Amino acid sequence: MRKSSQARSNRRQFLKSTSAVGGSLIIMGTKATAGIQGANDRVRIAVAGLNGRGQSHIDGWSKADNVELAYVIDPAANVLQRRMDGLEKRATGKFTTKGVADFREALDDKGLDAISIATPNHWHSLMTIRAAQAGKHVYVEKPMSHDVSEGRTAVEAQKKYGVVVQHGTQRRSNAGIAGLHEALKSGELPRLKIAYGYCCKPRGGIGNKPPGPPPENLNWDLWKGPAVIDQYHANYHPYNWHWFWETGNGDLNNQGTHQLDIARWAIDDDQTHPVRAMSIGGRFQWDDQGETPNTMFSYAEYPNGQMVFFNVRNVNYEGYQRQVFNEYYLEDGSVITGEGSYQILRPGAKRPEKLKLAQGHVTPGGNWNSFIAAVRAGDPSMANGNALDAHYGCVLGHLMNNSYRIGEPVSFHVDAANLLGNDDAVAHFTKLHEVMRDGVGIAENSTEYQLGKSLTFDPATERFTGEFAEQANALIKDADNSGFEIPGATVV
């Protein structure tokens, strides 16, 4: 596959510019293009991050038509070797995949077309930005961003360098979901009032791990990257980084990113960000060192009055009800449930009826092949879940999390619902409270919720306004480690 001379030289220019400022990862250089000559040309891709989702990426690209897995990347030497051994055993011809610890080595390859990012959250935006600047297309796991500011920079990098960026929200490739959302927005169905997402899957506590030196097989500096972490402990690697604010975003913007994205997708197309957000929750049942809530109810309101509700319930108990799906509450009182195919319970009806809808518009090929099709076409608009859609969905979760993070304790009591200031939110949070009280067995007034601040947000400036703006705006951009700075959007 051939790239323009600009694209071929862009990486060299970038490395020269970063060395001039002490190795900091800033955005400089000229627009890069990554054009593919024909629909049958081979796509060479690198997978960064090889635990969990990374294996799914490897499997997905291995099954895609005429795609070469050029690199696998991980800072843990044992993980990297394990994946390389597995790939070599599966190889049917000459084994060409290279294993490297640092993604920048893969970006140096002028013949590499794309990078597929399955690292911890705190690396997602920086890798997306760096890859875009190097003229590489990007498939990035959810959430695309770890904070609001870096998400905006990723959007601007995609715009400037013209690469395809597709978000790891696989449901964006589901034509049935797209069809429902098109029907809601066209007037075929009554107007949407509330889009409701659930991330209620059983999890357990992570215990308490003492600080100490990282294992010899882990390049800790590369793993941390931009995250400012005082000291290693064994709960960071390989998975439990999700439950610490420096590296993760809790289950709201982990598994929940899928359901958050679906909920925001249903909101009218002319809406970008919410203007208000509020959360309440806590970390119950477990005595561990995790920071993010395992129980949380959040809501956000858009300028047009439509709302998104979200429910996280990651505890476990006898009779636990797993709920990972979306609901749609319409202005006429109807409720729609399902995923891809739907039922609607109309006002006054005793039981729901099947909802018959046309399929919506998505790039065909499923999650993996749709991305490859967009890469071959060199058309960012073909991405099922592009950079801008990813940003809007991720920011929705960031606002909810930020409300929680600057909140204050209130008693664990059903009356805490009345502090939410929204009748629909009160009703839905009350249901969650009753599950925690009666299912988990938490006694009233025996512990505390964290009641988030009611935040106001300016969609145009992507800054908080109003009473709690100073506290909330401090969370718009995380601190970065020296040498791994994530630039602001204006630097792109």
Automatic annotation (TrEMBL):
Assigned keywords, A-Z: Oxidoreductase
UniProt key word Oxidoreductase: yes
Residue ranges of every copy of the Gfo/Idh/MocA-like oxidoreductase N-terminal domain listed in the record: 43-168
Origin superkingdom: Bacteria
Enzyme category, top tier: oxidoreductase
PROSITE patterns: TAT
Domain Gfo/Idh/MocA-like oxidoreductase bacterial type C-terminal residue range list: 210-292
EC identifiers of the protein: 1.1.1.312
Protein name stated in the entry: 4-carboxy-2-hydroxymuconate-6-semialdehyde dehydrogenase
Biological source species: Allorhodopirellula solitaria
Lineage: Bacteria, Pseudomonadati, Planctomycetota, Planctomycetia, Pirellulales
Name of the gene encoding the protein in the UniProt record: ligC_4
